Amino acid sequence: RLTATDWWISHTGASSTGYLSKSQEIERRKKILNKLVKKPDIILPEMAGTVVSMATSMLRGAISMAASAAATEMSLLMGVRKDIWFIKDELKTMQAFLVAAEKTKNKDLLLKVWAEQVRDVAYGIEDCLDEFMVHVGSQSRSRRLLKLKARHRIASQIRDLKARVEEVSNGNTRYNLITADSSSCIDEMNSYTEDIRSHSASNIDEAELVGFAKAKQELIAMVDVNSRDGPCKVICVVGMGGLGKTTLARKAYESKEDNVNKFSCCAWVTVSQSFSKIEMLKDMISQLLGIDSLRKCLKDLEGKEVQIENLSEYLTKELLDKRYFVVLDDLWTIDACKWIKNIAFPSTNNKGSRIIVTTRDAGLAEQCTNESLVYHLKQLQPNDATKLLLMKSRKTHQDMDNDKDMKTMVHKIVKKCGGLPLAVLTIGGMLSTKKVTEWESIYNQIPSELEVNPSLEAMRRIVTLSYNHLPSHLKSCFLYLSIFPEDFEIKRRRLIERWIAEGFVRATAGVSIEDVGKGYFNELINRSMIQPSRVNIEGIVRSCRVHDVVRDVMISISRGENFVYLAQDNVTSVREETFRHVAYHGSECQSIGMDWNHVRSLTMFGEKPLEPSSSVCSPDMRMLRALDLENAQFQVTQKDINNIGLLRHLKYVNFSDPRGYSHIYKLPRSIGKLQGLRTLNIRDSYITELPTEICKLKSLHSLRCTRNSSYEYFDLYSPRECLVQTLCLPMLFTPLTDPSKRTKKVAELHMAWSSRWSWSRGVKVPEGIGKLKELQILEVVDIRRTSCKAIKELGELVHLRKLSVVTKGATKQKCRILCDAVQKLTCLHSLEWLHVVSSPPPLLRSLTLDGRLGEIPGWVGDLMHLVKLHLWRSEIKEEGKIMEILGPLPNLMHLLLGRGCYIGEKLAFKTGAFPNLKKLDICNLWELRELKFEDGTSPQLAMIDISWCELRSGITGVNQLPKLKEISLGLGGRVAKLAMLQSEVDAHPKSPVLRLSEERSYYDLGDVVVQVEEATEESSSLHPEPAAAGGSSESVVTTNVSQDDLLYTYNSC
């Protein structure tokens, strides 16, 4: 075994990884091999299974690419069309075999090696054909024909790939790895129970059920055993693997006083991913009716082949008049749920029977039962997790309080476990045999120990079980998440755009590729593979996180698949493997010695690395598809992007920098060569205008560009400082100047000069912008500096769904042209400016109005799809128009009344107004004195947030809001009769919270009473004239200061 280990290490280039030094990596591989020798029947199928799954996933992209390449005229002219068709057909055959292999448990090392070969061939085909497609789409036909050298090279690569594909395909036949009937025995697999699940469930007994007491009582209440009539009720317990669903269901199932004594028969059935239908029915008959009943049934069938129908008929007939209680544990598919309900249980039983289902899939639960009968099991609270960890590691709170180092490690481990009981118990069990001084070392090695430590096997396999059950198209999407750092909040939009750029998402008939990507994201949420982090007011998940334990297993699988390489602190290695995705997480520069020619994505979360070159856009990364520097911890300069035109395969570019490090002041003209670019995000830069070459990017779907609007060195409002900096310009290019300050000063000077010292956050867009017919997101356009022709062309962007513009300083003519253009954008869902229009986009869901209006425009009342409305500086004089126009909007959920938007003293929410409003924000309304809610108003209102207002007549009528959850008084939010408001809140049947961020006395205006006269309604024009006369308009759209918080549904269908 030692010789085998040494051979493996020497032939796989064992070196340091993101977690381990080289010596630790060698030790890790020795442990894996020793474990493999001891348990080949468990480890080999698991290792082979993940490789087979990944190979299957990669083939989808290669087959699609081959079909597209073969359909081009150039493939015929180059004489490679038949070769590409051959490659495509062979890949489809391989895919069919791998799909069959995924469904069988008989996976061995030979299959693993063959699947790795298939995976690598698929990668090579994608790279080659991607290069071919870029060549096809880059120039005119005559120019392509003249590039003989490039044509010959690509044709030779395709023929070499054909030979390689044929060789790999023959490997399956030669070794008889997979037979066509591999999946024929799926239904009859003797895997009715999963040992790993029973093992993990047995880890938690009643004494260790910390934090579950409340959940148990809630579940029993949901079961409602005292209701003895009516049809069978199905209750679903949902949560990620290892959360304790089985344990919770068992405690409810075994509760005699609540359940067992009130049902005539009970059964516990473990379903799992694959099960034998006949064996399951036999087991249910035995548990529900008794072993004698099963013997009688089988005796009646003696001499015949036992069929599912025979057992089903017997069971349903016997249960017809019985009140039964059944737990279906670990259900994975809706088909299994429907089959069990239709075959095993009578449809006409009205005895008040109950079925509890445990599942990891929230989507499945919603199809199995009503939403009100779905119990979402929560993670352990930190205090409960700490208590459980100390109990399992045989320590006490006193031990922890007496040892600061131990206390620190306990908090770290609890955070690592993320409230997952199985993780707390398994890691606690490991720590129980170790000294406290060793805990830190164990904590640091948890990611690598997951692969080799038998104590952590249950925790690892509970994650791989979920991973292996994912459909092939989700596996690459899931592993891709390992790019992001621990506990990182991953925005849905960013993730889906990157999935699309990598080719993981493909459009289907009648569904856009963006909506397919959203479906993938939601499916991972429903399957409890990722956790919702931020949910908007409509209940849509806008960002997610990955559980630390899940991430560790994910990284292990990604590393084994040569999928993602994480470069972290103090790690220097020469990798012989070819990784497709690289992410830098460290705070120090690293040299990882990698072959960058096949890297498809580069993501920076740390300092600037030493390689592949001094520039971020290195020509060595010729196959790069995604370049993401949004969270980079270094200054991105103009030099870094000057070579971006060399990266012809780029589909996703993100230079957005919320930290303010980006010193980019101009997009190079070579940007026009990126014909496949879909997403270009350059927010928070010094760019003031877009080059005309941007109009060549016909595939562009999202263009976000905002510029810094402040000046630090060349501010004309500080003329003395500006003059000094101008006189010192020659010194910028001497060694006396700090390089970081040099790049910033140069960028700011360029921004000031090119924009004529404009303070706008928008950029000038070029004429020809109307050619970008696929564009869906465009922000932020500076209307003052953009030509009338370019503004008019905005109306040609027929697929545009989100538009942000700045009109400050623009002429009335330009504003009118913009209004005409906006009226043509029928797909627009989110708008951050609106002037006087007669026909606004009908599908608007998000609207921000900033500027003097005098009253609410009448057309706002026609926006039946409007979900969110923000008003700023509108100077609305009377509440009547607000209630009359905004009150009936059926879908309005979020209303923000900001600085100066309302200048009345009283705001009363009338009876029947705002039927769907859930959140009300009021800030900087200094004239407002009283806020009143009448009976029957805002029945869905849950949150009221008030800041920088002095309500001297108080808030009245909160008892009329049946769904109220919280009233928040922020800074400057002061209220008269605060004690009376508190008493109303305390008496509210929903027990809402009155949240104060400062001392109570700060908010209380005492018993001040101000008489506020009722406003009288006056007729006025629905469309007021622009406030400013002459050459400019005062109607200004604020730029998107915090778009992810404000614009909830910019791209919802």
UniProtKB/TrEMBL annotation:
Annotated ranges, domain Disease resistance N-terminal: 62-145
CDD domains the UniProt entry points to: RX-CC_like
One Gene Ontology biological process: innate immune response-activating signaling pathway
GO MF annotations, alphabetized: ADP binding
Keywords: Coiled coil, Leucine-rich repeat, Nucleotide-binding, Plant defense, Repeat
InterPro entries: Apaf_helical, Disease_R_plants, LRR_dom_sf, LRR_R13L4/SHOC2-like, NB-ARC, P-loop_NTPase, RX-like_CC, Rx_N
All copies of domain Disease resistance protein winged helix, residue ranges: 483-553
Alphabetized Gene3D superfamilies for the sequence: 1.20.5.4130, Helical domain of apoptotic protease-activating factors (1.10.8.430), P-loop containing nucleotide triphosphate hydrolases (3.40.50.300), Ribonuclease Inhibitor (3.80.10.10), Winged helix-like DNA-binding domain superfamily/Winged helix DNA-binding domain (1.10.10.10)
All residue ranges annotated as the Disease resistance R13L4/SHOC-2-like LRR domain in the record: 598-708, 761-993
Disordered: annotated segments: 1014-1038
The keyword Transit peptide belongs to this UniProt entry's keyword annotation: no
Domain NB-ARC: 230-392
Family: Belongs to the disease resistance NB-LRR family.
Full protein name: AAA+ ATPase domain-containing protein
Source organism per UniProt: Aegilops tauschii subsp. strangulata
